[in-house]
Amino acid sequence: MTELLERYAEVAGPDAVAQLRQLAEPLKGMKVVHVNSTRVGGGVAEILNQLVPLLRELGVNAEWHVIEGNAAFFTCTKKFHNCLQGAVDRPSEQDLAIYEQVNAENAERLAPVLKEADVVFIHDPQPAALIRHFPERKGKWIWRCHIDASHPDRSVWRYLRQFLKDYDASIFSLPDFARALPHPQYLIAPAIDPFSGKNCDLSEDFIDAVASDFNLDRGRPLLVQVSRFDRFKDPLGVIRAYQITKRFFPSVQLVLAGGGATDDPEGGMVLAEVRAAAAGDPNIHVLELPSDAHRIINAFQRLATIVLQKSTREGFGLTVTEALWKGKPVIGGNAGGIRLQVINHHTGFLVSSPEGAAMRIRYLLERPDQAQRMGEKGRKYVRENFLMTRLARDHLTLMVALLR
Ligand code: UDP
To answer: ipTM of this model?
Structure first.
């Protein structure tokens, strides 16, 4: 067994790895291509960074390609994203023309790879229209939706559906997100990699150094939310919850850490709003980090007393998984994939308002033993359900089923 697989066996158990090897056997040498729209930032990039090497280790000829787009393209796809999550910020005719044009250009660039692939996974709406340019494709094409599409704007869904209907299958993270499409749909929750920079163990020295670099006092309670600066992540609600908490725990500190995903044009605007709301309070640390600051984020999550993910919509919320894996209780918005992970009163609390979040923060700060027990449950829950080995198993099973 290779070194990487041995390490997975240590964390997830030897049976999990033996099963992966067995499932990968009929897929050895097959060309599997993943396409998304950014190599860094956001949950999809995080997953592909780990999943693709693991599939390769198992003998599958997996590749990861990223579509290239200009600012106007990403403005349009951000509107898709917002509208699929229920907003009504519809793209204009001109936006849609740019979307189709950029997909056409990428189709031409990626044609040699996509034509030959046995299986193609297209992630989210950005590259969804590529399929139109491959009417005589050889492989099976699967659309992987990472978004909370439970209540999409109808006209945007109708537009995207014209491309999505041609796929051979689609994957959603939760049953609530699945849409009526004329092909098999699969439910697969995302996962984290225990060995990535984001999740690996860190030395106390490194964690101390991060605390001191960012002026955090390890002797005082710390609330942390790691997220792109996106309204659906509700950073302003987090500040509000912190402000309420401060009345009871004046020493509390807050870190809002985020960075730019290259496919997210709204980040700057939201960041400015967050900075304005935090102005004048030296205990709120609004941090814009580079997209490769994995170990620093890892350290923030370990420094946290409580991790927040107060999203009002959330496809899955890898940040929740990352926090639970580090033994932290999570107070999360009662939305999308957070519900799969925050088991109310067990691994954390689900909340629907800043006031509710503040109440739960206060509850946990007053009961450190209970916070610790919740964290321990959370880590166990992630080990059983949300590690990369489980995601690889689901992907392999799906491919075996589709290629049969
Ligand atoms: N992340 C990061 N830097 C940031 C913000 C987020 O590396 O500044 C990572 C975060 O740790 C997580 C992923 O990006 O692994 C975000 O995934 P999630 O599913 O929580 O949200 P998404 O951004 O996909 O909506």
So the answer is: 0.98
